[in-house]
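residues and backbone:
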Amino acid sequence: MTASPPAAADAAAQSRPRPADLTDLFVSFTVLALQGFGGVLAVVQRELVEKKGWMTKEEFVEEWAVAQIMPGPNVINLSITLGARYFGWRGAVVAVLGMLTCPLLVVLSLALVYAQFSTSPQVAGALRGMGAVAAGLITATGLKLMVALQKNILGLPLCIALGILAFVAIAWLKLPLLWVLLALGGLGWSLAYRRLRA
């Protein structure tokens, strides 16, 4: 007798790697946060999907989309949902503490150093260079995650079209992010809902 699709999915989720305990969760998110200079998306995807296997690419795309539209920093939102998935409210708290504790100490230290050297042209040039690298990291991660969109209910062409519309609306037309999310997010949601019902 073969298992039903939901039972098979549950069995696969149970056999997948997961944090060993709250300490593992805290250390993993601390290490993740300390690597996230200039943009943490690339690091989060590499650590949680490729290295640890705590999420599939498809799960990451879905969870990141939810984290992106919720108020607050998206990586904090993601850490809350992942921590809560494995350890309930304690996991959510521990994951957030892992994301914030050491980076807060590093940022405070860097702020003190930056206050002394902020007028230096070399420092200003270095910061501009880091911005370009961060943009490249985000672009590379987005291209890697496009594979996961092939399994999306909307299909890859429509997902790409929505992504391009979002880019044009925000980067070129300078529309407010909230309105773009409501309009294009609502459109994507309604199209997905119709296809799921069909």
User: Anything to note?
Assistant: The mean pLDDT is 82. Residues 74-117 form the longest helix (44 residues).
